[in-house]
Amino acid sequence: QLQLAESGGGLVQPGGSLRLSCAASSSRFSLDYYDVGWFRQAPGKEREGVSCINSDGKGSIYSDSVKGRFTISRDDAKNTVYLEMNGLKPEDTGSYFCAAALARPIPLCNIWSVASSKENFNSWGPGTQVTVSS
Predict the structure, then answer these.
(1) What is the spatial distance between Cα 49 and Cα 129, in angstroms, rounded to a whole number?
(2) Helical H runs in 1-134?
(3) Which of 6, 53, 85, 109 could form a Cys-Cys staple with 128, CB 3.0–4.6 A?
(4) Are 108 and 38 in contact (CB under 8 A)?
(5) Are 34 and 102 in contact (CB under 8 A)?
(6) Which residues contact 100 (CB under 8 A, 6 or more apart)?
(7) Cβ(126)–Cβ(6) under 8 Å?
(8) What's the DSSP call for residue 114?
């Protein structure tokens, strides 16, 4: 089964930037065949969708709260999906998780209600902590 690992979290001041990475932990699995999403969870809150990118890299979608500040991308040669986060705010604090689902005829990441639903993803990483504070 596909296993994922996130990295790149840390402590950053408001307005700062971080780049998170999501890598497949085994070269036996290629992320080429997966739609990949990023989710986050703040203490005491539900896990929420942040962004999603289709397996072919041609479609991506964002939550309204991060649109214009975050950028999702993928490098299939490195078997990695990235989340570039700029203009970070204290409310972006939380654990960030990547999740993957085998690509389907209709990509997951075309419609936000589908892309942001945790139940549509069956492989998850353990998460990386992002703290935005002065």
Answers:
(1) 16
(2) 112-115
(3) 6
(4) no
(5) yes
(6) 2, 4, 31, 34, 35, 36, 37, 121, 122, 123
(7) yes
(8) H
Q: How far apart are CA 21 and CA 9, in angstroms?
A: 9
Which two tokens mark 109?
């990441």
Tokens matching residue 124 = 């998850």
Query: Phi-psi bin for 8: left (phi > 0), alpha (psi -120 to 50), beta?
Result: left
123 vs 15, 74, 114, CA distance in Å?
A: 31, 17, 16
* Alpha-carbon span 130 to 15, nearest angstrom: 13
From first to last of its 134 residues, the chain has per-residue pLDDT tens of 889 999 999 999 999 999 999 999 877 788 999 999 999 999 999 999 999 999 999 999 999 999 999 999 999 899 999 999 999 999 999 999 999 999 989 899 999 999 999 999 999 999 999 999 99
Report the C-alpha gap between 31 and 45 in whole angstroms: 29
- What pLDDT score was predicted for residue 30? 87
